[in-house]
Amino acid sequence: MLLWSLLVIFAPVDGKSDWLTLVAPSAVFEGDRIDLTCQKKNDWWKVKRVSYYKDGEELQFSSKLSNCSIQRAVLSDSGTYHCAVSPVWSIFPFQKEKTSRSVRIEVQELFPRPVLTVSPFRAIEGNPVTLTCETKLSPQRSDAQLRFCFFRDGRALGSGWSSSPELRVPAMWSGDSGSYWCEAETVTPSVRKQSLQSQIHVRRVPVSNVSLEMRAPRGQVIEGRNLVLLCSVTEGTGNITFSWHREATGTSVGKKTQRSLSGELEVPAVQERDAGRYYCRADNGHGPIQSKVLSILVRTPRAQAVEGDVVELRCEVQRGSPPILYRFYHEDVPLGNSSAPSGGGASFNLSLTAEHSGNYSCEADNGLGAQRSEVVPLSLSGTSSYREEHVTDRALGLLGVPACVGAALLFYCRFHKTPGRHSVTNALRDVPSANSQASTPSNPSPAIEDLQPDYVNVDPGDGDVVYSFVCSIQLPEDSENTRRTILENKDPHVIYSGVKEM
Questions:
Q1: Cα–Cα distance between 308 and 383 in angstroms, integer?
Q2: How far apart are CA 140 and CA 430, in angstroms?
Q3: Three-state secondary structure along 334-367?
Q4: What's the per-residue H, E or C state across 26-88?
Q5: Res 461 pLDDT > 60
Q6: Which residues on adjacent β-strands are paired with residue 457?
Q7: pTM, entire model
Q8: Average confidence score pLDDT of the chain
Q9: Rg (CA), the chain
Q10: 3-class DSSP state for residue 483?
Q11: Which helix (H) or strand (E) holds 8?
Q12: Is 60 exceeded by the pLDDT of residue 341?
C-alpha cells in the first residue's frame, strides 16, 4: 500500500506540471523590457537545469532558477513562451523534466513607421518646400516623447533632431535634388523607425521675357559719366548667366553669372564711340534667350548758355519716309514747326532770354505715327560774352516705329560778341564782303561775325579763349591792299594763317 501511494504522488499531469509557472508581463510595447520568470511551488524539489523557450525553441538555460530577459522588445519578439525544469535526482523515469504552461506574449507597436510627405508635390527651383514626417503614438503610450530628423542622401538636414515633425526649406535649388527620408524616435524607451526613401527632383524654370534697359542720371547718357545697362528676365530660376553684346560686331562687352532675375553692366566714363545698338542674353541652362535691341546715343557735355545767345534747335530722325513734319516744344508748349519734304532734319532758331530756361523736345511725324524725342534741358546764366561755338545735345533711347524712328533734339548755339574781348574779327573788320563794293563811310564793310563761318571750334573756358575760326572771303581786285590792311589790324593775341582755296 505504501508503494502505491508514492506512485500516486509523483504521477505526471498531462505532461504539464502545475508545480511550474511562467510569469510574464501582461502588456508589452516596442522598446519595453521583457522579464520571464519560471517559478516552482515546492522548494524541496532541487533544480538541475532551467530552460526558457519561445515557439518551441530554446532561448536560454541555466543551472538555477534565474530570469530570462529581453532588454528592448521588438515586434518579432511576439510568440508563445514556456519554461522547463529538470530535477537533480529522480526516483522514477517520468520525473526527469517538468514543463510550465505556455504564455502568449504580443509586442504592440509603439508608433507606426513614419511616412515622408513633400508639399508642394512638385518642387520648383527657388520656391519653398515643406517636408513632413507623419506618424502617431499608441493611445496607451501617448505620454512618450517623439522627435524627428530629415535626411538627404545620408546627410542630416536642418539642425538635426527636433520635436517638430516638419522641416521647411525656404528655397529649393536644382542641386537639392536627391533621395530624401525621415526618421522618428522616442527618447524613453528608445525606439527609432525610418520612412521609405522618396526621390525629389527640383524642376528648373527656363528664363523668359528678357529685356535690356539703360540707367543714367536723369535718363541721359553724358560723355565721361557712368552708364548702367540692366538685363532682366520676368521668369527663370537658378544661376542665370547674363551677357551684353554690341549689335554691330556681335562681340560680348560683359558677362556675369548670379542667382538673380537681373544683372547690371556698368560702363564707367562712357565715350561717344560707345554709342550704338546693344542687346543682352540670359541663360540658366535651357539655352540663351535674347532681348530686343536698344539704341544708345551718347550726349556730349554742352556749354552754359547765356541771355542773348542764339540757339538753333535741330530735330532729326534715324529713318522715316518723307515728307516729315517737325514740331518744337518748350516745357511742352509748342514753339513752332518746320517741314522736311525730302526727309532729313529741321531747325528752329531762338534768341535766348531768361524765360527760355527749361526743357526742350521735338516731335517728328510723317503721317504714320508721331515720335517724340527725349527732353533736353537748357539753363541760362548771365549775359553774353564773345564766343562762337556749336553745342550738341543728343536725345537718348531711340524707339522704333514704322514711321519716324528715334526723333532726336540737338542744340546749335551761336554766342554773340561783347566788346573788350580779343577777337579774330578785329583784323578783318574793314575787309569787304564778296558781294560788296569798296569800303566807304556810307557803305561800311560787314564785320566777320556777320559772315557765315565754314568751321568753328571753341573751348569756352574761363581764361583766354582758344578757338579756330575759318571763313571764306573773296578778296577784291586790290588784294594786296586788303592783305596789308589785315596785317596792320591783326590782333597780337591771335595766330593767323592763310589757306588757298582749291
A1: 7
A2: 122
A3: EEEEEEECCCCCEEEEEECCHHHCEEEEEEEECC
A4: CCEECCCCEEEEEEECCCCCCEEEEEEEECCEEEEEECCCCCEEECCCCHHHCEEEEEEEEEC
A5: no
A6: 468
A7: 0.51
A8: 76
A9: 51
A10: helix
A11: helix 2-9
A12: yes
